[in-house]
Amino acid sequence: ESSFSLFTNWWKHAMIALLDMPVELMVRGLYDAMNGFGTDEYTLSAIVGTLPENMYGEIHAAYKQHSGKKLVDHIESETSFSYKKCLMYQAMDWAESRATALNAAMVGMGTSEDQLIRVVICSTFKERQIIRDTYARMFSRDLIEHIESETSKSFKNILVAVLKSTRPRASFDWDQDCDKLKKALEGKSSDEKVLIQIVSSKTPQQIEELKNKYEEKHGEILLDRIEEYADDQAGLFGSSNFRDTIVGLLRDPMERLAYCVRDCINGWGTDNTGLITLLVHLSERKRRDLVEKYRVIKDGGDLIERIKGDTSGDFERALLALVKPPPQVWADAIESCMAGLGTSDGLLINWMCISKERMDEVREAYLATYDRELWGRIKEDCSGDYADTLMRLANRRCDRFSGKEVMLSIPPPASKIDAVLKFTKSFNKLMKLRKEKGEDIVPTEEEQQEMGSAFLYFGSTSSCAPNIDIPGLWALTNAVGFPPGDDGPDLVATFDEWDVSGTGEITWNDFVREMTTRINDPTHFDGAPLPATIDQIGELPDVPLNDGWQTMAAGATDDGWETGAKSPRKSKAKAKRKSAKAKAKRKAKGSQQRMGTAKK
Question: What is the DSSP letter of 280?
């Protein structure tokens, strides 16, 4: 810093900031927004609203070290009302935000049934167990017992049944299920337990199959038939809360989310707490999908405009930061630094550096919103070497790839072989280090990014890019040298083990967690290294993937669903033992396959 006395101070600040890592930039921005007199709500909303999900742990730890305060506690002390709740839920861990929302819906005067419904139905099988565990840890109370004390009759039964459904059912009699639903809709059956199990035991794909089978057999659309019911009408569907829960579970997950959001906006008043709960922690892909789905559902429309029409001020900006793509949020934040009298140079530098890896998208968003070039706007507000640096940054060329959404900074691999070579080189190096140290190791950020080449390549070919789906996992594991035993049950079980987040996709955090486990596994570090040169690897064959996996649900079991079956606790323990045995067999088989590949 002392070597550049001929240059302006803001130029020096910009050059130093360009050397900072994203976590440092975000932590500094958050602290500056809340420290001192007053709060910079615009900056606070934009940063909290675009926190990368895979960096939560690092950001919270760095913030505590930097400020001496917990991030959520600092936000709580500096904000108020719905705006405070919005930022706190987004700053919390995903599971903690869900547990907090459920607790708030039940404590105090009355119970918010709508909030209970939306949190419970907008979760996957595995996420329900994560929520239950988190609830017990945070509030020292069993979630199901709490719900049982606050609800009653059919509504209580279906909420409890869904929360207990942490594993899908393995087998079905589709004709029988359709006939039972038909009888219930005609008021000829009051077998509530069976009806609840029909819906709560199925994955979204199985629900679609059920609806198709029902329409084919009975000549009517199941959802339309249920929604025709009026409150207090005879039969199981006469209860509005029970009916709303069933209808929600019968919808596609994104459609389910869109309708829940719509119900928070339409009608008398706006359900602010509901909107917050539904919009926090959405990935970029889910933001895009939600906006598109909301546009086509009944009484939907332009979600951005609906939020603007129903909210205002800081709360409105916070909600928009949860729905808009991050590059758009950053473009708005950059403009706010230059709007009005004077320029907030420190903030401008921070935002330009936060945006640098996706500057091409920020430029496009800025031009589309403000009808002018970003570099031109900077030229008007800044001067000299400082302006020149920011203008060059504004015109920075960026490689565009799906991994940018999860803050991967490595360039995408040029080919499959390039991705595999980078991965195996880093993986082998880490296994060697683990063996030499004699104790578990955690890959550094740089080492994670090196292994991330495989995540990037196979994620880009997946239906849930940048995350990895089942076909993507099959291709990845076969390419790098530790494939599942088969492309049916073992592939689905392997996917279930990797999917610790419970989202039904292999996220970046899931990938890093699994690689860390394998690096520290004796089966790997005591075994032969992965082939790490083109000569060793040879030609990478495309191993065909049959369709068998599509009829299987990850973690599916019939235990606990039939009358007289073992208790869920025993079934879960049994499933855990089976999973542990299967995992050991898979790792042993993978080790043998790697050794065979290396010898060849």
Answer: T
